[in-house]
């Protein structure tokens, strides 16, 4: 019997607000443990939460881009459970009236649409630190950091679809500048709900694998859980609804607890927060603040600048690269050359020096000057690449560097004629072979002339001079 894997996911994205969701504590990652904590986020008696407006704005932005219905009147609820990383013994979330509902995101070049059931706002929990000797410590710095939970419909059928969805969602959030999406720091995590069913049959019993923080872990966890459930079904066993923990080192998952339902959390309306009302005016302001997204930029770069689709794809993979591209293209007036610079020399520099692509900064005047210099024949391509590297690595002044090193192209006819004569005199056999019809040796002779000119000859002028001299049999 043919069976089908069915997956729904919950993506938790920490928002990049300066302060936590209900208090003024810093959200900056790292630092000493338990130093970014106050009576509110540590759940002390008698304190009241105050909702951070920037959290709502970010939630609405994402909801609008994902085609969600924005619920302009929504509420918060208490999700009760006793766990050491929640100092209050409850989490403020949204169950009954989430801020965004019924959205979608297309993947696989628009061939498949993933339904988004809802996006809701909630607060993050603290972090458990497991030490040797069976001891566990708790860092509450993360408690109260604002989260968006993006809940999909069970529309995925493979690990590849899940990772593609997360990559596209991550791209959108980065362009909206609502989250840094650093999976390695825990600011983007996913829970995987997976079940097996007969083709077109009813959904099977699902399990949830929690807190996966890399695409690699997500892929491995899905494949592992699929095989685990199939083995149970084949042996006539019963799938148990449960929450599981993924062990990256062992490459397998382990049961944590029986999978809870909503009633197990004893949800009830949060009594310390009023109904959140989003006015039409505020909603329109947020709509107007949404920037051009990656998909829109890719289309525009191809349409307006004539970029190849693969170049546009590479550039738009990072919002920082799009800014570099647009700034340098504006300075130089050469969008194609600018795209080649970014996809070629800049990407090589980033890869070879382990530079962070999203934080790389450069004065756009400098590469703009170099592009114009090579296009106008002031320098050749090899010099262009050499000076670019100096600009990237050392923030060199390209004009000064070229002048001090004497790197301008030699276009003086007399200097080139002298180099041509010298080359032919040193390579008479090759010159005679060319005259005898062996035209392939011409490239060799060209290289020798350029070598005598120390790589600074104007290739077009050198070619003309060399060809003319050979044809005139001038030695």
Major sheet description: 9 strands, mixed
Overall shape: it is: elongated
The poorly predicted ranges are: none
Please state the structural category.
Answer: alpha+beta
Treating each run of at least 4 consecutive H or I residues as one helix, how many helices? Answer: 15
The count of β-strands is 16
Strand proportion, as a percent range, falls in 15-25%
Major sheet strand order: 2-6-7-10-1-11-12-13-14
Radius of gyration, in Å, reads 31 Å
Q: Give the integer mean of the pLDDT values.
A: 91
Helix content: 40-55%
- Domain tally: 3
* Through-space gap between termini: 84 Å
Topology:
Blueprint: E1 3-14, H1 53-65, E2 69-70, E3 73-74, E4 77-80, E5 90-93, E6 100-107, E7 112-123, E8 127-130, E9 136-139, E10 146-152, H2 159-176, E11 188-198, E12 207-212, H3 215-234, E13 242-247, E14 252-258, E15 268-269, E16 276-277, H4 280-288, H5 294-305, H6 309-316, H7 319-332, H8 335-353, H9 365-375, H10 381-394, H11 398-405, H12 413-426, H13 428-435, H14 441-452, H15 459-471
Parallel strand pairs: 12-13
Antiparallel strand pairs: 1-10, 1-11, 2-6, 3-16, 4-5, 4-15, 6-7, 7-10, 8-9, 11-12, 13-14
Helix pairs in contact: 2-3, 5-6, 6-8, 7-8, 7-9, 9-10, 12-14, 12-15, 13-14, 14-15
